[in-house]
Write a structure and sequence with these properties.
Elements: H1 14-28, H2 36-43, H3 47-59, E1 63-64, E2 73-74, H4 76-85, H5 87-104, E3 107-114, E4 117-124, E5 139-141, H6 146-153, H7 158-163, H8 179-192, E6 195-198, E7 205-214, E8 217-226, H9 230-263
Antiparallel strand pairs: 1-2, 3-4, 3-8, 4-5, 6-7, 7-8
């Protein structure tokens, strides 16, 4: 009979925390979800131990036991915690997203990196019959979206060796499938300052993004659109993103100053 080894241990619960963290790391690598047996295999723990930990995590909203494939996946509380950690950018970025959306007429998002994946921090959807709709908190591998590539390009190539195996997971036939090919792609992103993804995450979906390093952290502003409109819209979107970057950097600095004066109880400069 399988032994449940969640008995009290002399390390004061450290072992339980380590095992819980291992489970959550395993789930972060499988956004579609994993069965309890698959989780147990991933983290090398008895299934009964995994079941007890997953049940506790589900009560707290940290995992969801009803993933799209019937397995367990990371829960909504994770996205909420991440959003709280990036609260300043969410508040500041909403106005920036609206300005960008008005200029390009396509879905616009702020993307951040979480656990070696890209996550949509905030998004605004375009008003088209044919449009891309993204959900806040949705995560994907960094190498398949323009926002992920823009974030990766802000780091040196040594990061690739730590994050990616030599062969990468392919979402479609257009996905970059090797670490060497990704390295070459990121060199182009650094040279141009803009990242592209065409049919790499899903057939028919394209995106264009730029990274912006502010005092609040490193983020990517991404424009997502149906690939059918890409050729017509790409130049205009790229030009708009470049102009938008200067605006973001200037206004981000002002936002930080206003936040500081507000915390001191000083009157608004306006």
């Amino acid at each position: 009979m399988e032994k449940d080894d969640l008995a009290p241990d002399p390390r004061g619960g450290v072992q339980v925390v380590a095992r819980t963290a291992a489970i959550m790391r395993a789930l972060s690598a499988h956004p579609g979800g994993l069965s309890l047996t698959a989780i147990a295999n991933e983290v090398d723990l008895p299934r009964s131990t995994v079941q007890r930990l997953v049940t506790a995590l589900e009560i707290e909203g940290l995992v969801d036991g009803k993933g799209p494939s019937g397995g367990t996946r990371l829960g909504p509380t994770i996205s909420s915690l991440v959003a709280t950690a990036h609260a300043d950018m969410v508040v500041f970025g909403r106005h920036q997203l609206k300005s960008l959306l008005d200029a390009v007429g396509e879905t616009c998002s702020i993307v951040t990196a979480v656990n070696a994946r890209s996550m949509v921090l905030e998004t605004m959807t375009a008003e088209h019959l044919l449009r891309i709709v993204l959900c806040q908190g949705v995560q994907t591998h960094l190498h398949v979206s323009a926002g992920g590539k823009a974030l990766l390009a802000a780091h040196d190539d040594a990061v690739l060796e730590r994050l990616f195996p030599s062969k990468l997971e392919a979402y479609t036939e257009h996905t970059i499938s090797t670490r060497n090919a990704l390295r070459a792609e990121l060199a182009k992103v650094r040279e141009r300052g803009i990242a592209f993804s065409r049919n790499e995450r899903e057939i028919g979906v394209s995106s264009i993004a730029m990274a912006v390093a502010t005092n609040m952290g490193l983020y990517a502003f991404e424009v997502s659109l149906p690939d059918a409109r890409f050729d017509k819209q790409a130049d205009h979107i790229e030009e708009t993103l470049r102009a938008h970057k200067a605006q973001i950097l200037e206004q981000a600095a002002e936002f930080e100053k206003d936040k500081l004066t507000g915390s001191l109880g000083l009157p608004d400069r306006s």
